[in-house]
Amino acid sequence: MMRTMVRLDRIYTKTGDDGTTSLGDGARVAKHHPRVAAYGTTDELSAVLGLSIAHGLGEPWRARCLSIQNDLLDVGADLCVPGAPGHEAKRERLRVQEAYTKRLEDWIDEANGTLEPLKSFLLPGGTPHAAWMHLARNVCRRAERHVTELLALPGEKEQVNPEVLRYLNRLSDLLFVVARVLNDGGRADVLWKPGG
Question: Which residues of the chain have a pLDDT value below 70?
Fold first, then answer.
C-alpha cells in the first residue's frame, strides 16, 4: 500500500471561508457534511487519547494508544476519499484493512481476560486515565454514529469502506475494556446504582 507523506507549507488557504472544505478527491462539500463530521470526530478522538498519553499513561497502553492514534489518521484519510476498496481510480488510496480491527480484537481478548465480569453498568470515572478512556469511548461512539449517518445518505453506502465502521465499533469496545483495566483491573470501577 502506498503511503503518501503530507507537506504543509501554508496553514491557512482561505478556501474554507465560504463554509466548504475539500475532500481527498477534490470535491467540495459543506463543513457540516456527515463525511466531514465523521473524520473530524476521529481526529477529536485522537486528541482525547493524546491527553491521556500526555498525562503519563503507562505501558503497554501508551504504545497501543499511539498506534491507535496513527490508525485514526488512516481512518480519517479513508473517509476523506469517497470510494470503497477496489474502486480507486488513478492511484492507490489508503484504506483501513481487516488487520486493523483484528489487532483491536486481540487486545480486547487479552485485556478482558484479566477482568471480573460486570454485574452492573458503569459510571464513567474512577482513575484519571480510566476517565480519559471513557471519554474517548464516547467520542468514538459519536464517530461511529456519524459514519452510520453517512451510510444512510443516498449514494454514500457504496462510497464508504465498511471496515471503517467495524474498526470504530471494535475500538469503542476496546476503550471500555481499557478503562476497566486502568481502574485497577476493575476494582476502582464506579458502578451504577439504579434509583440511587
Answer: 1-27, 29-31, 84-93
How far is residue 52's CA from residue 179's CA, in Å, rounded to a whole number?
11
Copy the grid coordinates of residue 1: 500500500
Residue 22 within a domain: no
Give dist(CA 16, CA 151) in Å, integer. 25
Domain assignment of residue 75, given as a range: 30-87+94-191
CA 112 to chain centre: 20
Confidence at residue 16, expressed as pLDDT on a 0 to 100 scale = 52
In a domain, 61, yes or no: yes
- Name the pTM for this structure: 0.85
CATH code for the domain in which residue 116 is found = 1.20.1200.10
- With a CB cutoff of 8 Å and minimum separation 6, the contacts of 87 are 158
